[in-house]
Amino acid sequence: MAVIKGWKADESGNLIFRKTARNFNQPMATAAKICVAEVEEVVPTGSLDPDAIHLPGIYVKRMIVGAPYDKKIEFRTVRQREAA
Asked: Which UniProt keywords are present, listed alphabetically (predicted)?
């Protein structure tokens, strides 16, 4: 069983990944007998560009919309330079 994280999915289960999520999610989903996908947003079927789909819905058995959370690692943090 594979549990993967996608960015956007349509109602048919076609998934789009963002950034580093494209690394192992697709091979894990295709190799597993059961694939559960957590996505941030579900859109109507046909609204995703077919060329942008990273994982066809044939591999996704279940899909859930995850709760919103802070993506702290995606924010750039900098500090002020010390006075010379």
From this structure: Transferase
Indicate whether 8 belongs to any domain: yes
Closest CA to 60 of 7, 19, 11: 11
Identify the domain containing residue 48 by its residue range: 2-74
Q: What is the pLDDT along the chain (84 residues), one digit of tens a residue?
A: 999 999 999 999 999 999 888 889 999 999 999 999 999 999 999 999 999 999 999 999 999 998 887 766 666 667 787 876
List the end-to-end C-alpha distance of the chain, in Å, as a whole number.
56
Residue 39: inside a domain: yes
Does the residue 46 lie in any domain? yes
